[in-house]
Design goal:
The structure is a single chain. By secondary structure, the protein is α+β, with helices and mostly antiparallel strands. It contains 7 helices and 9 strands; from the N terminus they run H-E-E-E-E-E-E-E-E-H-H-H-E-H-H-H. Strands 6, 7, 8 and 9 form a 4-stranded antiparallel beta sheet that branches. Strands 3-2-5 form a 3-stranded antiparallel beta sheet, covered by helices on one side. The longest helix is centred in the C-terminal third of the chain and has 72 residues.
Length: 297
Amino acid sequence: MKSIAVAILVVLVVIVLVMALISFQVRQTESALVTTFGKATRQITEPGLYFRWPPPIQQIYKFDSRLRVFEADLTETTTKGAVPIIVNTYVVWKIADPNKFLNSVGSTSAAEVKLHSQMNETQSNVIGQYSFSEFVNSDPKKIRIQEIQDKMLSSLQNSVREAYGMEVKALGIKQLKISADVSKDVFNRMRGERNTITEKTIAEGKAEAVAIRTQADAQKTELLAAAQARAKAIMGQGDAEAAKYYEMLQADPELAMFLRDVEVLPEILKDRSTYIINTDKDPFSLLREMPNLQPKK
């Protein structure tokens, strides 16, 4: 029995060793490249158990297929207007082509060196197409950071995929800095822009005030002219009425004064007013007795 158990154990060990030589496992977070006599023959991106020829016929190279974040160092780059800015860029990438990745870079650390070089080149090319005011501006509509990031991402994706078998999923500008001298110039320029806006607003206000004042003066002149014309008309009407009474006064002075008293008396008494006055005074003398008027011959 003991010999049988030893034999079974030996068989199991042999089976395990054989399986280790002719099979391999690809995990969920991995991709694998199979080479036959040094030439790539198969790329595996799905997890599972696979079979192979034992070494040295076939070799298995495994790569971490998870997304990686690589953050470049702060780098000074010149904008379109020759204004230097300091940019800190990051990328999210993964191995997309194991064969090309193995032949071009070989390892993750070497890949990040290549990626850093490509990022600097892309950064210089793209940022050099934009002016400083498109990075920093008091007007949010003039800032084009998102457009710059998208352009850098597109350029970097094409270059690293073809050259190194790497796929860049995302790119972003983490930090944007400027030197003290540039900051001073920026603030001076912003102050100048604010002053220009202020002067423009004041000028527009003065122009509006002049327009309002001119319109008011024109309306004033028009109203004065209308008032003067109305006053002249009233004066003319009054002169005509006065002339009529003047004629009556010349024809019969006593009758004219009587008629004047008759017209004035209802106006005085129409508001239920109480007057204490001597009735000998005109026109209240009419309440006491009628005047003795004789027609003129």
